[in-house]
Input
Amino acid sequence: MSDKLVLWLILLAVLPPLIISLISLYPVRRWAQRLGLMANPGGHSTHTKVTPLGGGIGIYLGMMIPMVAGTLFVLFSDAMPWLPELLPESLRRHLPGIHSRLGDLWGVLGCASGLFVLGIWDDRRGAPVSVRLGIEFLLAAVTVYVFDVRLTAFIGAAWLTDLLSVVWIVAVINSFNMLDNMDGLSGGIAMIIAGAMAAVMLTTPVAGGGQPQLFVGGLLLALCGALLGFLWHNHPPAKIFMGDGGSYFIGYIIATAMLMATFASDPRPHAVLAPLCVMAIPLYDMSTVLWIRIREGRSPFKGDRSHFSHRLVDLGLSRTQAVLTIYLVTMTCGLATLVLVHVTVLQAFAVLGIVACMLLLVVILESTGWAKQNDK
Output
């Protein structure tokens, strides 16, 4: 793929969502109290002052407005031949392919909108856990069985592949929801993962086609732009929080984008592990938090301060240092993922070994903190 095409794609996919998200969150911050979107200190939360809780609105608008505009542009291009002439030739020739994927796009965005609404309701009223999980599984099942967005893996049993796809979507949604516990953490991690996967898409051709995966890559780049606009307001000290509306939305977009992507091919079947590799830290945080809660006899669904970020603070890091440390580890996983999809099977063992060693190092460091706490 030419450098010019990459630059145009980044410009058109990232810049509009960034601007819309950044600007739209100023009125959301101002009107958050009237909207009933405020986070109060106390409980398991570590913030010390009342803070607006509608950052997901900016992320949602940053994604949806450009997607609506882009869809209208593609649809009207057939009736108005002068419209495609506004684009450079490197992008113009991909319009038919984008047109063919509009059904997939709006199927995903429709389910993502449902999860966004669920999250906003949860932010305002507090939805029961059973209702939240029920809707998440329902929309994940619709994504898999209705819109045919599912895992591509070397598994003979189709029912197992479909089940794993549904579980994957729900797991990723909740992993980002759990990460939303410190300023800039969930949004920053999501941006790093989306950026890494976009790079994978733009350097991994569609099987047999030789063309980069512009559809999924563009979707992830748009999410990066929306998250960048949000992080302007969410960096420490945060002026607004993402809320469940944002975490459900970005978790679903990232989960489904990975299912729509093509990773594995005949010489590189190991590339199917790319989503697990890039998502190592969010999944590590979610699994360890659930294990800690269940081990201590507490509800796995009740929030607390047992997250990876909190545990790093307990080891002596500041909150900002903890967030930056998690950024660094996630970036390492993202770089490993970018390498993983381009190497041979034997080389893949080395790449996956690096990620495993890094996670093991994290566990060893954390275990020293646990030992000190037990000695007190």
Q: What stands out?
A: Strands lie at 38-39, 51-52. The radius of gyration is 21 Å. The first strand starts at residue 38 and ends at 39. The first helix runs from residue 3 to 35.
